[in-house]
Amino acid sequence: MDDQTRFLKDYDCESQWFKHSRTGADWIHLKKSDTNNVFMVGFQTDVTDSTGVPHILEHTTLCGSKRYPARDGLSIHPLNRLYCESNTIVKCDDLTVYPFSTENKTDYYNLMNVYMDAVFAPRLRRLDFMQEGWRLEHENPRDSSTPIIFKGVVYNEMKGALADTNSLFHTRHQQALYRDSTYAHVSGGDPENITDLTHEQLLQFHAKNYHPSNARFFTYGSFPLEEQMQKVDEKLSGFSSSSRHSLEDVPRWNEPKTIQAVGPLDPMGDPLKQSRVAVSYLTNSEKNLEESLSMRILVNLLTDGAASPMYTSLIESGLGSDYAPTTGHSQFACRASTSFGLTGMESKNIPVAIESIQYVLEKAAQTGFPENRINNIFHQIELGLKHRTASFGMNLGWNIIRTMIHGGNPLDAMDTAPSLAKLKSDLSQPGFLQNLVETQLLSNPHRLTYIMNPDAGYPASLIEKESQRLAKHVDALTDSDRENIKSDGLELLKLQETKEDLSCLPCLSLSAVKKQASFYPLKITQSANGIKQFWRETQTNGVSYVYLKWDVTYLSDREKLLAPLMCNSLTSLGTHSKSLGELDETIRAHTAGISASVFSSPSIDGDSPRDYLVLNASALDSNIDAMYNLVLEVLQTTNWAAYDNLNIALMSSAAGAANSVPNSGHAYAIKAAAGLLKRTCYSSELFGGMHQVEFLDQLLKQTEIPALAKELETLAKKMIQTSPLEVLVVSGSQSVDRHSHIHDQSFSCFAQSKPSTFSNSSDIVDFVPKYEMRNYPMDLGVNFTARSVSTVSYVHPDAASLKVLASLMSTHYMHRELREKGGAYGGGASYNTLDGVLSFMSYRDPPGAKRTLDAYERSVAWACEITKHVGNEELDQAKLEAFRNMDKPVDAAGEGLTQFQYGLDLFALQAHRDALFKVTMQDVERVAKIYLQRPCAMSVIGEKVSA
């Protein structure tokens, strides 16, 4: 392999770029003393239609290969047999990347072998294509009298994805802006087109694109490169060079275009304020790194923060509730795009929004931007380079492969110092940014104005189109076709129910798992004014992370529902001495951000759960004093009389909550069910579940803002004055004394030296469980379901066995019943060791909730006889999965956070780990019989179900 080498000062690592002499495959390696090693192989997978062929290929590739002929050989079973921390496949519009990371060397090479065989020698069987992509099948494959319907994992996944209004807007907008290019197609698949894809087309796409000549490899970490290259070279020995086609540039327009479309009406929002608009431009080539960086800075100046001109003109003005989901500078394609837009607006204000965007751009082209805002952006870049994250190698690899596929130089892309120096020099030249606004935006004829208005009949129209499409397919069937559908359905069912021989897959021995629990010890002290301090001294590259915590368990249900909005308001209203724009820019100038949140913390013994308010901030050590001053300012002098800003914060919170349901419905479903069982889960549901979504919607429709402001102000004072403050500082040892001094001097107001004027009730009302169904009908096209039972928490002797039980049920029962047979995109069992709740859930599940709820019921019977279905080998695999989740690397900012928030000390962590090693199959069956047959709570988000 040919070699280019460069030392990257910003990342303190050596980079090497190789090209495989025989096939032409590219390989970037970053040598760094990081134990979390990363491997990636990516392919350019641009498309010419919206059948979703790269997406379905990614799924089907994971259904076994020549050397590892196990269905779900990569997606399910190796993860239970190995110890990798991450392996989420990345599928974008023009590329597909297969990544993993691990600290275990044996594990690393096992996974490398599996990945390489999966992508270069997959089986790609017809039945696997039918299961993962789409098929015509009887509703009940065993009963040919039932209707023939569309089924398929990807088909159902994309129905759910495009039911989300934000996703729909983003997708259709992209198709319009990138017309006549590969990006004009839905690479993930549009349900209208997925049913046109054939198995033969899938095979052809793989042969063309999954070839070493079209591959880009990335490795990172401390494992020897020579060993890795030798193993990969062996895998590529059967291939010769093949031509690699470059991505075609996007055809440019000669004049602007306007497109109007319709989308679903959100029943939770104001029906008169659901229009969306985006004004978008096709801009620079991704190959031009300096231009790309300049455009990112420019768009940041235009849109980021409350002081930005777009925020002032579009949101602060009251035209809409939030930016459109396309807003920003997007670099997903070989040619970037820039978009400015608004959502949550009345249709009559669309022309005003378009004019406002034009006005902001014209003014920016004339006057430029304040120097302090430009300096703040470079401060944020500096902070970003210093943050020590556990996923550093993984994030870097993704950007490198994307750069290579887009035709850029990956070493130049990583070597940020020269580009930043050049940009600073350019910015010192008069008119640099103004000229960029003029050339890339105002004078750019490739401009799209995309408008989407709500239509209450939109979901029904989708159902009607699907019915017509299905009828067309069914009407064209011959008698022979119908017999094939019947036999294929039975054959696939048989395949799904056949127990696999997994002996071909590599498996890490439990002896390779470390016996000692990962723990980041905290030093606990008390300040001069009585505040409890927790200290974690570690290597942070000169950044300090601070967490302030108050006990708020005594809050009423309404106060808990209001608490998230109160937290958001602390940095969304301004203070007595600073407008919102001034506050936002000051925070950016001195910190990486300040935010507050509420969460519920079950005690490790399950007897005394608590709820907490946490405010966190981080800054360079040189800005510690300024950071604390800002924290005190937002806590003590928030301007609750800024009614317009509060109204904007409320609209944004309500829209954000409602928009998150289609993508995170499984989490909402679990919260809804678990919230019926335990007080701590009930608090979590109030803070961030469907209760919160519905409450914000009601608040927006029914509440007078001045009254709400008064209520929030009273709540804020109550939350920080009723219980004593506790502080966690994660920093280098050199800054500890400075933090301690500030705590002594400035935090006396939180030390509770005098009795609180608020009642801190110690006799919290006992929680009464409810064993019932919660149903949230929504036009999503798919369902999210959950069933939960109350069990025991972390320190109980049965906790380890329950964790293993959930893993075994997910892998060996739920995956087959919910995904393979039922067609859900995801599903399984999860055990929350802290809350002590075991839940079953489905994600983007096709309509027919009863089918899934019945599968949950059958799973209980299966689990109560689990020793008949799985053995000790599967048990060890489940333990490996549990250890993998427990031992994931932690960001510097997160060291010690588990102990601070949940009280998990080394004794509890080690006891749980020791118990996990000792779990037997008899233990697993015993806890299944004890806990799974208890009364349960259930929830369905999506279709309306009968009581």
Automatic annotation (TrEMBL):
GO terms for biological process: protein processing. One of its GO terms (cellular component) is mitochondrial intermembrane space. SMART domains: M16C_associated (SM01264). GO terms for molecular function: metal ion binding; metalloendopeptidase activity. Its cofactor is Zn(2+). It is found in: Mitochondrion intermembrane space; Mitochondrion matrix. Its main location: mitochondrion. Pfam families: M16C_assoc, Peptidase_M16_C, PreP_C. Keywords: Hydrolase, Metal-binding, Metalloprotease, Mitochondrion, Protease, Transit peptide, Zinc. Residues 452-699 form the Peptidase M16C associated domain. Degrades mitochondrial transit peptides after their cleavage in the intermembrane space or in the matrix, and presequence peptides; clearance of these peptides is required to keep the presequence processing machinery running. Preferentially cleaves the N-terminal side of paired basic amino acid residues. Also degrades other unstructured peptides. May function as an ATP-dependent peptidase as opposed to a metalloendopeptidase. Monomer and homodimer; homodimerization is induced by binding of the substrate. PANTHER family: PRESEQUENCE PROTEASE, PRESEQUENCE PROTEASE, MITOCHONDRIAL. Belongs to the peptidase M16 family. PreP subfamily. This is Presequence protease, mitochondrial. It comes from Batrachochytrium dendrobatidis (strain JAM81 / FGSC 10211) (Frog chytrid fungus). The lineage of its organism: Eukaryota, Fungi, Fungi incertae sedis, Chytridiomycota, Chytridiomycota incertae sedis.
